[in-house]
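Now for a specimen:

…
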Amino acid sequence: MARLKPMGRDTLRVPESKKLYNELHFSEAAPRYDTATRAMSLFRDAAWKTHLVGSLPEISKPLCVDIACGTGDVSFLLAQRYPEGRTVGLDIAEPMLGIARERNRHPNLRFIRQDMCAMEFQEGSVDIVTGSYALRNAPDLTRAIGEIRRILKPGGTAAFLDFSKPRSGFFRIPQYLLLRTWCGSWGLILHGNHEIHGYIAASLAAFPDRGNLLDLFASSGFALVLAKRFFLGITELLVFRRLTR
C-alpha cells in the first residue's frame, strides 16, 4: 500500500477522500498502533476503554458492534463482558483487522471489514454500539450517526471515547499544537512519518466542538446518559441511549 503523504486542504472535508486517507493512515499505523496509543495516552488508554465498557448496561445476550475497532481492544472487552452475547468489530483498514483476528481468542467475537457509514446490519437489530477514537474518523459524521441510530434497537446504547474539542476557541489553538506536536512525534519515532498520528490534531480541528457534537446526537434521536472527561478534558467518554421516536 502507498505510503501516507501529507493531506491536502480539503482531504477531511470530502467524505471519499477522508475515507481513503484514513484507510491509508491506519493501514500504515497498524503494526505499531498499540504501542503508539499507549504512549500518547501516557498508558491511560486501557483504563479509559475499560471504563467505557464498564458504563454499558447489563444485558444477557446482546449484539454489540464496535465501530472503527482497530486492533480490537474494546471488542475484546465487550466479548468478555457479554460472554453469552455476540460482538462484531468492524474497521476499513485490513491490516488493523488482521492484527485483531490474530489476537482473538473469543468464540463470540468476529472482525469484518466495513464502513461505519454503510453498515450491513438490519435496522433495529443491535443492542450496543461502541467506538474508541471512531466518530472523529467518520468520512461523514452525520451519516455515521444516522447509521448508528438505524441499526440500534429503540432504547439501545451507544458509547464513544474520543478526543474532545473545547467549546471555547481560546483553548483550541493550544490543544491543536499540543496534539500535533506530541502525537506527531510518536509517528516520527515509530514510523519515520510525522503525518502518522499527527493527523489527530487535524481531524479534531475538523470535528464539532463538544456542544455541537451533543446537539448533533440530540437532533439525531439520542439522549445523553453519561459524559465523563479524562486527561484534563482532552479525552471524553460519551454514552447515549437511542430514543424510541
